[in-house]
Amino acid sequence: MINAGVMGGGFAKGGINIGGNKNGFYMYGQTVVSFNSPDKPSSSYTSDSGTAISEADLNNIGTSTDYVVGEGGKYLGESVPNYGGINGLTINTFYGYSASGIGGVVISLTYTSTTEAQGGDWVQVVSTDFPDFGKTSPYFDSKDGSIYYPYKTIEGNSISFYDNPKRPLYDAFGRSKNGDWIAFLSLYKGSKPIFGITYGYNMHFGVIMPYYIQVIYP
Amino acid sequence: MNKLLITLGLFVLFYQCTSHKPKETNMKVQVKISNKLDDEFRNKKTTFYSVNIDLINDTDSTVSFWLMSCSWQDNWIINSDSVRFYYQGCDSNFPELKQILSGQKLTFIGILQVLSPLKTGIEKDFKIGFVEIKQHEYLVNSDFRNVLLAKIKDKKDIIWSKAFKFKN
């Protein structure tokens, strides 16, 4: 399995389904706008640059941790300073928040390298068993073991990454929901992982605690 | 002569006043509460309604703005703490530049959660506002959420719907 520091837990299944586009967008008078059409489960994907990366390749990411940015919960409500210089990786922002019954984290990073990044692919895998409806990529479904691979091929020598994953803090009956959400972000050159990053959060009784960001080298 | 000068002066003053009026936005928001969804999720604390929100571009040019790729609800605010959008979360959620052509509209289909409906009452008027983040107002690598929150705090570029009610 992917070593992403996944803790136990998960998200309760439930909620409300409505008809139409799962993300609720329609453009009238012209094309229907479709955001984030769900990726189909697959055990491999082919990147823009034609590279095939299999699940086995993903699992080959190493387990040695060369650099730990911070401890769990430390970044709640505050921005992480610039950690540039780690193989060209700059973490611009990482914090957790909750508002209007929804909680999540915001992460943004920039990767710049004239030698390593060019032509490489970022692959993101998210480990969670929720949501069942509204599957936006990326997604790892622990119920059936399917993994969804979104990716972005680096153009030039720099790539920016922004993610704001979130979940409701309460179910439809107003009961607080608990669980863990972990993403594993990895930079590939060819089919070889160069290094990876984990980030995520723990949701417990309406409080969001961001996990540390961990940079993992193969 | 003096009368003529005074008249001309007043005319110029009037013209300047009227020509410097702030330009009104021509984006419109229309809200339609479709139906109550509490048959399946009945409980005393909250009630759910499906809602269609039209963002209409009544200008004569294309409008470009930033929306989150999944949580489009982030760009919408409600004039009451008793009502909020309900959704099941997002992964891979990032800002995307969207456009609405002149004369077109973008319809958002979502769920509104009314907290403590008995306390809120059915007579109260509600409004939903769209927080417009213009193309030049968000830069890649900056924190979109902070940009959005700053606009909400400053009450800037918010396009409000007309008042509406929830029906029992």
State the end-to-end CA separation of chain B.
69 Å
List unreliable stretches of 5+ residues of chain B. Answer: none
CATH topology of chain B: Immunoglobulin-like
- Count, helices of chain A: 1
Order of helices and strands of chain A: EEEHEEEEEEEEEEEEE
Number of domains of chain B: 1
Oligomeric status: heterodimer
Task: Classify the secondary structure makeup of chain B into a structural class.
Answer: alpha+beta
The percentage of residues in β strands of chain A lies in: 35-45%
Using DSSP, what is the number of strands of chain A?
16
CATH class of chain B: Mainly Beta
Largest interface: A-B, 52 and 45 residues
Q: Mean of the pLDDT scores of chain A?
A: 56
Please write out the topology.
The complex is a heterodimer of chains A (218) and B (168).
Chain A: E1 25-28, E2 44-46, E3 52-54, H1 55-59, E4 65-68, E5 89-99, E6 102-112, E7 121-127, E8 139-141, E9 146-148, E10 151-153, E11 158-163, E12 166-168, E13 179-189, E14 192-204, E15 207-210, E16 214-216
Antiparallel strand pairs in A: 2-3, 4-16, 5-6, 6-11, 6-12, 7-10, 7-13, 8-9, 13-14, 14-15, 14-16
Chain B: H1 2-19, E1 27-36, E2 46-57, E3 63-68, E4 76-78, E5 83-86, E6 95-100, E7 105-115, H2 117-120, E8 128-131, H3 144-154, E9 158-160
Antiparallel strand pairs in B: 1-2, 2-7, 3-6, 4-8, 5-7, 8-9
